[in-house]
Amino acid sequence: MDLVDGIRVFVASVETGSFSGAAARLGMSPKLASKYMGELEAQLGTQLLHRTTRRLGLTAAGEQLMARAPDWLNELEEMTGELREARRGLSGTLRVSAPVTYGELRVLPLMRRFRALHPDLTIDLRLSDRFVDLAAEGIDVAIRIGRLDTSALIARKLGQISLLLVASPAHLDHAGRPETFGDLVPHCCIRDTNMRGDGAWPLTEDGQIHRITVSGPYLVNSARLARDLVIEGEGIALCHDYMVKADLDVGRLEHVLPGVCGPRLDVHAVYIGQRRLARRTRAFLDFVAANMFTEEARS
């Protein structure tokens, strides 16, 4: 066993909480991960982990190693990468998490552009609308929309998106075009349950926020489905601007109550702050910060 491989297994085991989690991250069997861990402890002459049927715990020696090992691994990877890639692009695996629809429409195109600059890079894009545990799942960067929960993560603001009231012309021709907040109440409204809160729509007019309780036959946990139902004429929805811009431009959708503003949501890139960032992670953060909200990205 190589010492570096053993330390990689150790760090991954601690961060994921199990040998099976470490094995999945590193692409090996749980049995081999456990073997590497035992060989590392034998080589260092000390026990690093307490093993129980439910979890792994750090010994005093394990805590001492864990305080330095992640940074050491990153520095080693960065040093060897710089030597190996002095005349090439970045390499290795970049693991990025993002919300499903935003990831499909905005993050994936950016990652393709980024990888085109670095063809030796492997992209591991994981789309989920839940807040993933970056350490447990080995994520380098997560793109998050909306209010950030308090955590030890470092956040870098990328920009903002707005929510717009939209409906199809056919629906508005049939049900009428709202002119006031009260006109929304009798309409069929499609509600995206991913939005935090009590289900009311927070709408701003003349600087004043109004919480409008709406109803309708569809509750969906997908921003894309809400937009698709609106296009089919099923009602009015509060949709992210990036998702409906093209539909508004060609007249497939109409902006309802254009003088009213929906919520504005911050978009952040977050990452673990206790460790040294790999060169590819730093480069990706700089790339998305420079390109996420350019006109090219919006089109």
UniProtKB/TrEMBL annotation:
Belongs to the LysR transcriptional regulatory family. The lineage of its organism: Bacteria, Pseudomonadati, Pseudomonadota, Alphaproteobacteria, Rhodobacterales. PROSITE patterns: HTH_LYSR. This is LysR family transcriptional regulator. It holds the Pfam family LysR_substrate. The keyword Aminoacyl-tRNA synthetase does not apply. It comes from Fuscibacter oryzae. Residues 1-59 form the HTH lysR-type domain. Keywords: DNA-binding, Transcription, Transcription regulation.
